[in-house]
Amino acid sequence: MASTRDIRRRIKSVKNTRQITKAMELVAASKMKKAQQAALSGRPYAELMARMLGALADRVEESHHPFLAKRDVKVRGIILITSDKGLCGALNSNVLKLVTDIKTPAKYAVIGRKGAQFIARTRRELLADFPANDRTTFADIKTVAEFMVKQFLDGVVDTVEVIWPRFRNTLAQVPTIMPILPLSSVKDVIADLHSDAGVVASASTNVKAVDSQMLFEPDPAVVLDALLPLYVNREIYQHALDAKASEHSARMVAMKTAKDNATKLLGDLTLEYNKARQAGITQEILEIAAAQFAA
Asked: N or C of the chain: less Cβ packing under 10 Å?
């Protein structure tokens, strides 16, 4: 049995660990709530963009836009979203498994240090890497989106896809891969935006008559050219917010589990300490009794 001094030292260490993990759990819970609110705040924007694209859908020729042009896929372009820091359970490793499953030629733009380290370690082609700040701003994500769109238009990559941990709830984050470019059609874009905004299709019919009377200057084709890049930027930004909510949720759960384990270990160590202390007292009593009997 370990000495009482060693057990006291371990108890102190476990108490410090429990205090740290509890603080990190509270911080992650606060950040998670803010990240969820940021993700939900994009719904009105998505609904308005869907209405405008719906009014444009029947007035333009889709095939002339480079985002809607079909091409043979030789090299995939992938935006990989991970975290900068660890201590978030299996969140990053689950996302990186999707990258491991990709066997076709691909080039990567990475948001987050963990993803950049993995791409470099596995000798995959890295186009660029960007930091994953705690406060995800549209300006930061717009830089990533415009970079990948330029690679797509220049022919460096033939697709733009996003791999990220989709936030389902506090306990579940699902690794997901989703194509962004090329777009299939404007109608599919409208359906995606309505889905993101939480709008039921039947509810949007009330404003259809108003949307059909929209006037676009200088002409619908120019407005569509301006809206589709905004759609791409918004989709990637929404996925980045989703990934940030997933990160904070996974970290909160991981820290809560660590805190609970520390509490359980602390109880076991306290019991062991009491047993060792009682054994020491009993031994001292026996020694005193033996000394008196010998005298």
From this structure: C
